[in-house]
Design brief:
alpha+beta, two-stranded antiparallel ribbon, 13% strand
Protein backbone atom coordinates (compact mmCIF):
# COMPACT_ATOMS: atom_id res chain seq x y z
CA UNK A 1 0.00 0.00 0.00
CA UNK A 2 1.27 3.46 -0.87
CA UNK A 3 1.95 5.85 2.00
CA UNK A 4 -0.10 9.03 2.18
CA UNK A 5 1.74 11.84 0.47
CA UNK A 6 2.49 15.23 1.93
CA UNK A 7 0.35 18.02 0.56
CA UNK A 8 1.42 21.63 0.26
CA UNK A 9 -1.38 24.10 0.91
CA UNK A 10 -0.66 27.72 -0.06
CA UNK A 11 -3.00 30.57 0.85
CA UNK A 12 -3.03 33.55 -1.49
CA UNK A 13 -3.46 37.21 -0.71
CA UNK A 14 -7.13 37.95 -0.19
CA UNK A 15 -7.76 34.62 1.56
CA UNK A 16 -8.47 34.27 5.28
CA UNK A 17 -4.80 33.30 5.77
CA UNK A 18 -2.73 35.32 3.27
CA UNK A 19 0.77 33.94 2.83
CA UNK A 20 0.20 30.89 5.04
CA UNK A 21 1.85 27.71 3.81
CA UNK A 22 1.07 24.31 5.27
CA UNK A 23 2.78 21.00 4.57
CA UNK A 24 0.56 18.21 5.81
CA UNK A 25 0.19 14.50 5.23
CA UNK A 26 -2.90 12.94 3.78
CA UNK A 27 -5.15 10.36 5.32
CA UNK A 28 -6.44 6.93 4.50
CA UNK A 29 -10.02 6.27 3.47
CA UNK A 30 -10.61 4.56 6.83
CA UNK A 31 -9.39 7.64 8.71
CA UNK A 32 -11.49 9.91 6.52
CA UNK A 33 -14.62 7.87 7.22
CA UNK A 34 -13.97 7.44 10.96
CA UNK A 35 -13.44 11.09 11.86
CA UNK A 36 -16.80 12.33 13.05
CA UNK A 37 -16.12 15.04 15.66
CA UNK A 38 -14.23 18.33 15.60
CA UNK A 39 -11.94 16.99 18.32
CA UNK A 40 -11.05 13.94 16.22
CA UNK A 41 -10.51 16.09 13.12
CA UNK A 42 -8.17 18.44 14.97
CA UNK A 43 -6.26 15.51 16.47
CA UNK A 44 -5.75 13.97 13.02
CA UNK A 45 -4.75 17.38 11.60
CA UNK A 46 -2.12 17.79 14.35
CA UNK A 47 -0.86 14.24 13.79
CA UNK A 48 -0.36 14.88 10.05
CA UNK A 49 0.94 18.46 10.31
CA UNK A 50 4.52 18.57 8.98
CA UNK A 51 5.14 22.32 8.97
CA UNK A 52 3.40 25.65 8.61
CA UNK A 53 4.12 29.37 8.57
CA UNK A 54 1.41 30.32 11.08
CA UNK A 55 2.18 33.36 13.22
CA UNK A 56 0.43 34.59 16.37
CA UNK A 57 -0.95 38.06 17.13
CA UNK A 58 2.54 39.25 18.14
CA UNK A 59 4.06 38.10 14.85
CA UNK A 60 5.84 35.15 16.44
CA UNK A 61 5.88 31.75 14.68
CA UNK A 62 3.43 29.18 16.02
CA UNK A 63 5.08 25.74 16.27
CA UNK A 64 3.61 22.95 14.14
CA UNK A 65 2.88 20.93 17.29
CA UNK A 66 -0.19 20.03 19.34
CA UNK A 67 0.65 22.88 21.73
CA UNK A 68 1.04 25.31 18.85
CA UNK A 69 -2.26 24.31 17.26
CA UNK A 70 -3.98 24.44 20.67
CA UNK A 71 -2.83 28.06 21.08
CA UNK A 72 -4.60 29.13 17.86
CA UNK A 73 -8.13 30.42 17.47
CA UNK A 74 -10.47 27.43 17.27
CA UNK A 75 -12.36 28.96 14.34
CA UNK A 76 -9.14 29.38 12.37
CA UNK A 77 -8.04 25.82 13.11
CA UNK A 78 -11.42 24.37 12.13
CA UNK A 79 -11.31 26.38 8.90
CA UNK A 80 -7.83 24.98 8.11
CA UNK A 81 -8.97 21.45 9.00
CA UNK A 82 -11.96 21.85 6.68
CA UNK A 83 -9.71 23.04 3.83
CA UNK A 84 -7.37 20.08 4.42
CA UNK A 85 -10.29 17.61 4.45
CA UNK A 86 -11.60 19.02 1.17
CA UNK A 87 -8.11 18.98 -0.38
CA UNK A 88 -7.18 15.39 0.51
CA UNK A 89 -9.53 13.60 -1.91
CA UNK A 90 -8.54 15.76 -4.87
CA UNK A 91 -6.56 14.09 -7.59
CA UNK A 92 -3.52 15.98 -8.78
CA UNK A 93 -2.75 15.30 -12.39
CA UNK A 94 0.76 16.01 -13.61
CA UNK A 95 0.97 18.56 -16.39
CA UNK A 96 0.55 16.92 -19.77
CA UNK A 97 3.69 16.79 -21.89
CA UNK A 98 3.75 18.97 -24.96
CA UNK A 99 2.17 17.04 -27.83
CA UNK A 100 4.41 16.01 -30.68
CA UNK A 101 3.59 14.92 -34.18
CA UNK A 102 5.63 12.73 -36.46
CA UNK A 103 6.06 13.75 -40.07
CA UNK A 104 5.36 10.67 -42.18
CA UNK A 105 8.21 9.42 -44.30
CA UNK A 106 7.60 9.20 -47.99
CA UNK A 107 9.11 6.20 -49.68
CA UNK A 108 10.43 6.23 -53.19
CA UNK A 109 8.19 7.78 -55.82
CA UNK A 110 5.31 5.48 -56.47
CA UNK A 111 5.51 3.72 -53.05
CA UNK A 112 2.17 3.95 -51.32
CA UNK A 113 2.63 1.35 -48.59
CA UNK A 114 2.55 3.98 -45.86
CA UNK A 115 4.91 1.81 -43.80
CA UNK A 116 7.97 3.23 -42.11
CA UNK A 117 11.33 1.48 -42.59
CA UNK A 118 10.93 0.08 -39.05
CA UNK A 119 7.60 -1.45 -40.11
CA UNK A 120 9.03 -3.08 -43.24
CA UNK A 121 8.45 -0.21 -45.66
CA UNK A 122 11.04 1.13 -48.07
CA UNK A 123 14.06 3.04 -46.78
CA UNK A 124 13.76 6.81 -47.09
CA UNK A 125 16.16 9.07 -48.81
CA UNK A 126 19.23 9.17 -46.49
CA UNK A 127 19.10 12.98 -46.37
CA UNK A 128 15.84 12.92 -44.42
CA UNK A 129 15.11 11.82 -40.87
CA UNK A 130 12.49 9.12 -40.31
CA UNK A 131 10.58 11.25 -37.78
CA UNK A 132 10.75 14.93 -37.02
CA UNK A 133 9.11 15.82 -33.68
CA UNK A 134 7.12 19.01 -33.90
CA UNK A 135 5.37 21.16 -31.32
CA UNK A 136 1.67 21.56 -32.06
Amino acid sequence: MRAARVRHLDFEEGSDFPGLEIRIGGMSVDEYQEVRTNQAMIALFVDRLVSWTMIDEDGDPVPATAEGVDSCDVGDVLTLVDIWFRECPRVRRPPAPAPTAAVPVQGPVGDESGLSPQEGGPSPDPEFEAEIPMQL
